[in-house]
Amino acid sequence: MLTHIHIWNFAIVEKLDVEFDAGLTVLTGETGAGKSILLDALGLALGDRADASVIRHGADKAEISVSFSTADAPYAEGWLATHEMHSENECIIRRTISAAGPSKAFINGIPATIAQLRELGEMLVDLHGQHEHQSLLHRDVQRELLDNYAGHTDLLNHVATGFQQWRTLTEEYRHLTQAGRDRDQRLELLRHQVKELQALDIKTGEFAALEQDHKRLANANELIQTVQQTLQRLTEDDNTAVEIQLSQCSSELLQLSDMDSSLSNVQELLNNALIQIQEAGAELRHYADDLELDPHRLAEVEQRIGDILQLARKHRVTPEDLAGLLPVLTTELDKLDRADFHLENLVKQIAKAKEAYLGVAGKLSKSRQKIAKQLSDKVTDGMQSLSLAGGKFSVALETLDEDRWSATGCEHVDFLVSANPGQPLRPLNKVASGGELSRISLAIQVITAQAARIPTLIFDEVDVGIGGRVAEIVGLQLRALGGQRQVLCVTHLPQVAALGHRHLQVSKHVNKSNTTTMITTLDSKHRVDEIARMLGGIEITEQTRSHAQEMIERAQL
């Protein structure tokens, strides 16, 4: 529900704050007073196009802020939660238009796009008349209205579930069939690749071990020579071996330590070094015993490494990843081998899912046909009392081809109308007159008030071309609609204005320097004066005031 609007430096409005309540609120005022400014400002807040021309003369920026209670707007609440803009049953939309740059928009303080304003706005407000927010012109909204009116929630859920199951299976079949076009060629390739990998029989970590073996075998001659030379220097040369030199030095210092105990530490260090040299020599002799030139083994390792590298390049993987490729290709091969059997089962599952979908979709279609006739008759009857005598309304169901079936059923819903006798039924969005469209929309909204999803309705030009008894009927229907949802109506007719639960007056004030528009909430006395003005001519008489008072009192009965 719309709760507040703040307008600043917009058109001829310098600053304006208006509070809104539930029920029917009427807006009246002299011709040219600026009644459309409020709707234009609201339209901008809900995503209409804007340029610098809407900024008040002398200002550099215009701002519009609109507040809603979303307690009665579950669709809007869900949208806000999905977009992480939720704020405890409240929605504040703010839009600024600058002369120096692009406009900016915010939803609950979070920057938003104009497309988001439009999307959210269509869940909060329905503007009826010559405005972009006429949601009833959209096919999806027409279908939702019919289904909500019929109470199809559970049935629609079953249809959506059935469609999703059928679609998922169909997509799987399409994918497998498409893959199957190259299946034989792929099978032949996979069998060959799996056979090669099985023959290679590479183990995880094997390639790294082979590289290490190859380094050792390829450099065996150098390793043998170097090890032998090192042993000679360390332990085996009787004259120069490090072991002999260290042993001699350690013995000499041992004798000297008896003369000076401070040499004992040095002697101990030399003795430890001698032990390390002896251990190193033992390790090198053991290594040398196992080390030998083995050209045959070297050739085997080089051949193995070559085979692995060749197959790795063929599959465009690293040698280390080659071992993990076999189970992947084996799984694919097994799946393709079983594809024919799977496809046969899938065809049966698709047929069963399609039959289930058509079963619930058929129930939905039958119920829609029944409710469409009822709604068509009721709206047509409602049109007769709204100065649309001879007009007709029809809810048409267009059966769709299979490729256009959806989660909402097997048909499109179209609202068709003929506003005058003898004219053919045409889509609602082809109705030329804004007044006719507003009154047709009113008839639809009154009948479907309980089922509609948008909490705030605004009617503009709903009273164009009518008067007298018809005007009072329009007012009564708007007031009845206000008992279900929030309704705002811009009107020129006293019969409609008198039936409002709340009355706002739009007035224009001119002085030497500027022109401003104001909106005032009328109390009982001033409301009588305004209704009298709408009834009377240049001069307002006591009789006119009395008539206005009577109209207001009668509206309360």
Gist of the model:
With 557 residues, this protein is of the alpha/beta class. It has 18 helices and 15 strands.
Question: Gyration radius, to the nearest Å?
Answer: 45 Å
Strand content: 15-25%
> In CATH's first tier, which class of the largest domain applies?
Alpha Beta
- Sheet of most strands: 6 strands, antiparallel
> Class by helix and strand content?
alpha/beta
Low-confidence stretches: none
CATH topology of the largest domain: Rossmann fold
- What is the CA-CA span between the terminal residues? 26 Å
Q: Biggest sheet: strands side by side, in what order?
A: 2-1-4-5-6-7
Let me know the average pLDDT: 87
CATH architecture of the largest domain: 3-Layer(aba) Sandwich
Global morphology:
elongated
Approximately how much helix is present in the residues? 40-55%
* Name of the CATH homologous superfamily of the largest domain: P-loop containing nucleotide triphosphate hydrolases
How many domains? The number is 2
**Strand element count:** 15
Structure description:
The structure is a single chain. This protein has 18 helices and 15 strands. It is an alpha/beta fold and 557 residues long. The chain has 2 domains: 327 residues, P-loop containing nucleotide triphosphate hydrolases (Rossmann fold); 154 residues, no CATH class. Helix 7 packs antiparallel against helix 11. The longest helix is centred in the middle third of the chain and has 46 residues. The two termini are 26 Å apart.
Describe the SSE topology.
Layout lengths: L1 E9 L2 E7 L4 E6 L5 H11 L15 E9 L4 H9 L7 E9 L5 E4 L2 E3 L1 H11 E4 L10 H12 L2 H28 L2 H18 L5 H13 L1 H17 L5 H16 L6 H27 L4 H21 L9 H13 L1 H46 L7 E8 L11 E8 L7 E2 L6 H14 L8 E5 L7 H15 L3 E5 L3 H4 L4 E9 L4 E7 L2 H12 L6 H14 L2
Parallel strand pairs: 3-13, 3-14, 8-12, 12-13
Antiparallel strand pairs: 1-2, 1-4, 4-5, 5-6, 6-7, 9-10, 10-11, 14-15
